[in-house]
Specification:
This protein has 183 residues and is an alpha+beta fold. It has helices at 2-13, 125-132, 143-162, and strands at residues 16-24, 29-31, 41-43, 49-56, 61-67, 78-81, 85-89, 99-103, 110-112, 118-119, 166-167, 181-182. It has a single domain, classed as Dihydrodipicolinate Reductase, domain 2, CATH 3.30.360. The longest helix is centred in the last third of the chain and has 20 residues, at 143-162.
């Protein structure tokens, strides 16, 4: 799931220049909860709780928590805080959630009308966006963006292991917004 959320953060806030991280593996084994191997106990060989701080090129900081160790959460998937207010963004793994804004003068959260993106989007919309790109340089979900997100994920794990900030070398640029488009 990490690539969905990190790609959304890079798209919203720009490329990442450095990361710090901390990880934990809560149990040495887990029991598979669904599918054909349901009930089977397997060894855990990766971190199951990952936290990190990403520094974006334009100065924003992102705090991430990705965990297989929590039962549930009511935290928004992405929330952006700035000097003028806070923005609650829908889950990037879904396509139908509202964006909400709360400024200093608001009594509560206000829904924000869509200003960009594919209306009524669903799985496969990335392929549609790829087909509609006028040329290779304008592909939003580019190989460069994917490599950057992978470097960020690996960087958080390396930062946790090394106990220090890890620089991120790749610079794919921030993807252009999708014009407001009815599918």
């Amino acid at each position: 799931m990490g690539p969905y959320y990190l790609t959304a953060l890079v798209t919203l806030l720009g490329e990442v220049t450095s990361v710090i991280g901390s990880v934990r593996t809560s149990a040495p084994q887990r029991t598979i909860g669904s599918g054909p191997r349901s009930g089977e106990t397997i060894p855990v060989q990766v971190a199951t709780h990952v936290t990190g701080v990403l520094t974006h090129a334009e100065g924003a900081l992102s705090t991430i928590v990705m965990s297989f160790d929590s039962v549930a959460t009511e935290s928004p998937r992405i929330e952006v805080h700035g000097t003028a207010g806070s923005l609650s963004v829908g889950d990037p793994n879904r396509f139908d959630e509202q964006v909400r804004l709360r400024t200093w003068s608001d009594d509560g959260w206000q829904e924000v009308a869509p200003s960009a993106g594919y209306l009524e989007a669903g799985r496969g919309v990335g392929l549609l966006d790829l087909v509609r790109a006028p040329n290779r340089e304008q592909v939003r979900a580019s190989g460069g963006l994917a490599a950057h997100v992978l470097e960020v994920m690996e960087g958080v794990l390396a930062a946790a292991e090394q106990g220090r900030s890890v620089p991120i070398a790749s610079r794919p640029g921030r993807p252009a917004p999708v014009p407001l488009t009815q599918i």
